[in-house]
Amino acid sequence: MTPVLSVKDMTVRFSTPEGPVSAVNGVSFDILKGECVGIVGESGSGKSQTFMAVMGLLASNGKATGSAKFKGDELVGMKRDKLNTIRGSKMTMIFQDPMTSLTPHLKISRQLTEVLVLHKGMSERDARAKALIMLDRVKIPDAKRRLDQYPHEFSGGMRQRVMIAMALICEPELLIADEPSTALDVTVQAQILELMQELRAQGNMSIVMITHDLGVVAGLCNRVMVMYAGEFCETASVDEIFHDPQHPYTRGLVGSIPRLDKPGEERLTAIRGQPPNLQHLPKGCTFQERCDYVFDRCIAERPKLLAFAEGRGKSCHLKGFDAKGEVLR
Ligand SMILES: Nc1ncnc2c1ncn2[C@@H]1O[C@H](COP(=O)(O)OP(=O)(O)O)[C@@H](O)[C@H]1O
Ligand SMILES: [Mg+2]
User: What is the strand order of the sheet 62-70 is part of?
Assistant: First the structure.
């Protein structure tokens, strides 16, 4: 089966007055049809820029190298015209801040229908009917009236729903959701996640869910890729990430989730230290300064992301951890 998205050796560098920033450092992965993949990692680890590069949306001081194929078509370096036939219709992205993708002075109806008229050759009338269906589907009450309003007339949560409707109206094959609920209050956050769950259950669309919150992926995703300093340090099924994490960083992340189910054990061991400076990455493992298990090889040699079991990979020189959490060397 051809993956929907296949990324190989992708790097993203930004040039800044202080020198180059290595935001993404040679990542390779596939997103398969119908799967929902969670991308987790601390803020600044390169989650967004990996997918901004895929979408061809890097800031002007950024440059991507390597390959990103959407159903076989190379996106890196693709001409804008051709790229525009894919992004926004077959591959769409929703952002943390809906105002970045909504145009303030255009009615919601126009913003929803434009893509249908332009990409799908629909009549205004049919497009409007479809827009109405979409607003219903993302549970915007009183959709008919709402359609003729402007973005500022919507609350933050409702705007986020409009953006989700916009991202879905063309029935994309790949939806990239970049922290779609982070800026919202807890109740709305839960509603948006519930909506994502429904969408996932309804179609065979592939979803990439970018989040710094492991809790978000638990109910939504089937696979997780953990990002650290511009690389993936562990990839596994959701179940394995929570119950048998094998990279020390993943163990730290999982260990820092408050245990609501076991109030006595609500340890919050935030991982000590800070991520490395992306302008001066160390020669060896990028996690070495924060790792409790560091040894000579970690300082001398950067571990690669290697498969170690069916569907699992890690970039770590340790053998792993046993079921009791004891390190294996
Ligand atoms: N336009 C830019 N110029 C310089 N550095 C940037 C730019 N955009 C992003 N970065 C840097 O790239 C790194 C990765 O960013 P990002 O992918 O947004 O992180 P995440 O989404 O994981 O929080 C960060 O250190 C960020 O400061
Ligand atoms: Mg981000």
Answer: 19-31, 5-16, 62-70, 73-74
| Mean pLDDT, range 267-277, rounded to an integer | 80
* Closest protein CA for atom 2 of ligand 1: 14
Mean pLDDT of the chain: 91
Please give the distance, rounded to the nearest whole angstrom, from the Cα atom of residue 23 to the centre of ligand 1.
6
Higher model confidence: residue 28 or residue 197?
A: 28
User: Among residues 177, 152, 294, 312, which one has the least CA distance to residue 303?
Assistant: 294
**Residue 269: per-residue pLDDT:** 62
- Counting Cα atoms < 13 Å in the Cβ hemisphere of 186 gives 1
Q: Specify whether the CB–CB gap between 59 and 14 falls below 8 A.
A: yes
Question: What's the pTM?
Answer: 0.92
Q: Whose CA is nearest to atom 25 of ligand 1?
A: 44
User: Which residue has a Cα nearest atom 12 of ligand 1?
Assistant: 23
